[in-house]
Write a structure and sequence with these properties.
This protein has 372 residues and is of the alpha/beta class. It has a single domain, classed as Rossmann fold (3-Layer(aba) Sandwich). The N and C termini lie far apart (53 Å). The strands form four sheets. A ten-stranded mixed β-sheet has the order 3-2-1-4-5-6-10-15-14-16, with helices on both faces. Strands 7-9-11 form a three-stranded mixed β-sheet. The chain has helices at residues 17-26, 41-52, 75-82, 97-102, 104-124, 144-158, 185-194, 213-226, 242-253, 284-287, 336-345, 365-371, and strands at residues 8-12, 33-38, 64-69, 87-90, 129-135, 169-175, 177-179, 199-201, 207-212, 232-235, 239-241, 266-268, 280-282, 290-293, 296-299, 317-319, 326-327. Strand 14 (290-293) and strand 15 (296-299) form a beta hairpin. The protein has twelve helices and 17 strands.
């Protein structure tokens, strides 16, 4: 039986890449009601139309899908949307590093004040669980976006001490780059390859954690079930070198657009301000209060005495100690052929493959010429 079966679930930012996939997976979990809030009016309309077509095939199961235009900066709207809700999956955020640097006050309003609003609305409506989706950039942050995400995590952890007898459990999930999402490097490389190059790298030594959109959202839903309160779930992810990803994409896509992969230029342009050569999903300090689970790690609150006494009795506990910080490096990255297989197995480049139409041989010559 699904954990979400019969529950009312609210997804904030449900029209974003991650939010939309979470909504799609939830439709297979048979919740009683699915609510979505997003600030993108057009996408809200299209998502609701899409959900109307995705009702479960069993006639006895009918999911009431309800999408609304709204902003997480509006606590009154959030409170209204949380009325009668069992689970809140909070994905709405400003996620682009450079845009947050240019508009730090907006990042604070959405990524920090917005989290506070979600907490207040959930407590006011006695919601059962709230799961906040964070980022690897929250670990030892070097930019506004990462700093705001770290503050969001701390607010979610602190919320467990504010509930005063209410049932609400607050937890966070933290993962790295979702390959194929609108904010990932894959669409950028694909456009550069389509135009004949060059493909630009900030630094050839750069490594990153990766996962597919489907897996990232599946683990968010799994975290909602595992959550005990105040912890940060860190998903286990493979590591790649960005240089290798560019080479795999050139080999796979360049022939589609009529280019020789061997002749396509790969240019190094230098790292951006605040950009790390490696990523961290867990810091050295956090390892001292982390346990290992089957598909993820669980980082316990730093100041346990401040919060209520919580039993972190996970069913899939592997180890109660973690010895090393969870960072990406060339030493633990996938080999080139392993990455090529990963990209193919998960069909990550399928949206960028050129569709070459075949013309039946029996068509008249003039039709064949026009079609060509």
């Amino acid at each position: 039986m699904s954990f979400f079966m019969g529950k009312t679930v609210l997804v904030t930012g449900g029209c974003g890449t991650v939010g939309r996939e979470i909504v799609r997976q939830l439709m297979d979990q048979a919740p009683k009601e699915l609510r979505v809030i997003d600030s993108n009016e057009s996408e809200v309309f299209f998502l609701e139309q899409e959900l109307l077509q995705k009702q479960p095939k069993k006639p006895a199961i009918r999911i009431h899908a309800h999408c609304q235009v709204g902003d997480i900066r509006d606590v009154d709207k959030l409170t209204m949307m949380c009325e009668g809700v069992d689970v809140v999956l909070h994905t709405a955020a400003l996620k682009h590093v450079i845009l947050c640097e240019r508009a730090p006050f907006d990042a604070v309003q959405t990524n920090i004040v917005g989290v506070r609003n979600v907490i207040q609305a959930a407590l006011a409506c006695n919601v059962e669980r709230v799961i906040f989706t964070s980022s690897d950039k929250a670990v030892n942050p070097t930019n506004v976006m990462g700093t705001s995400k770290l503050m969001g995590e701390r607010l979610i952890t602190a919320a467990n001490s504010l509930k005063v007898g209410r049932r609400t459990i607050f937890s966070s999930t933290r993962f790295g780059n979702v390959l194929g999402s609108r904010g990932s490097v894959i669409p950028i490389f694909a456009r550069q390859i389509e135009s004949g190059g060059p493909v630009t790298l900030t630094d050839r030594r750069m490594t990153r954690f990766i996962m597919t959109l489907e897996d990232s959202c599946r683990l968010v839903l799994a975290a909602a079930q595992k959550a005990r309160g105040g912890e940060v779930f860190v998903t286990k992810m493979p590591v790649i070198r960005i240089d290798d990803l560019a080479r795999v994409m050139i080999d796979e896509l360049a022939p589609q657009y009529g280019f020789d992969p061997a002749e396509m230029e790969l240019t190094e342009i230098g790292s951006k301000p605040g950009e790390k050569l490696y990523e961290e999903l867990m810091s050295e300090e956090e390892t001292r209060r982390t346990v290992e689970l089957d598909e993820m790690f669980s980082v316990m609150p730093a100041f346990r005495s401040v919060y209520e006494d919580i039993a972190y009795d996970y069913d899939d506990l592997i180890s109660e100690t973690v010895d090393e910080a969870y960072v990406s490096s060339p030493d633990n990255s996938m080999k080139l052929e392993e990455l090529r297989k990963y990209v193919r197995d998960h069909r990550l480049l399928e949206p960028y493959m050129r569709r070459v139409a075949t013309i039946p041989a029996e068509l008249p010559t003039i039709v064949r010429r026009r079609a060509a």
